[in-house]
Design brief:
By secondary structure, this protein is mostly beta strands. Strands 1, 2, 3, 4, 5, 6 and 7 form a seven-stranded antiparallel β-sheet that branches.
């Protein structure tokens, strides 16, 4: 899946957060053709879930900073680097490196929260 190249990117490293080593990446895409292609691939990807498909168990890996506006259509993906898989809840307690992502179709924005979470099964 190719991420659009036209737009802008902001990165914020949090000094204080309830998450460990918390970094926020925010991208706003601007090329209409790239956006159309990205959204088509996103909708057909097994790694992205529409907001209503997120289970309560998986939602604990999605920080409040990724909340979707009520009038928006958002897709989510949670990649856990330590188990090398998307949208899967770990079987064991421990520290996990998480990439929680949200894409807004209304605003053509991709937000990625990169953090370490102490997970208790």
């Amino acid at each position: 899946m190719e991420i659009p190249s036209e737009g802008f990117l902001e990165k914020q490293i949090w000094d204080e957060s309830y998450l460990l080593e918390h970094i926020t990446n925010y991208a706003k895409f601007t090329n209409a053709e790239e956006i159309r292609k990205f959204e088509e691939e996103l909708k057909n990807s097994n790694n992205w879930l529409f907001q209503e498909e997120i289970s309560s168990h998986l939602s604990i890996f999605i920080p409040l900073t990724l909340a979707c506006n009520t009038n928006d259509f958002c897709y989510y993906s949670v990649y856990i680097k330590d188990i090398d898989d998307y949208n899967i809840i770990p079987n064991e307690s421990g520290k996990y490196h998480i990439y929680a992502m949200m894409y807004s179709t209304e605003y053509s924005t991709l937000k990625i929260e990169d953090y370490i979470l102490e997970y208790k099964n």
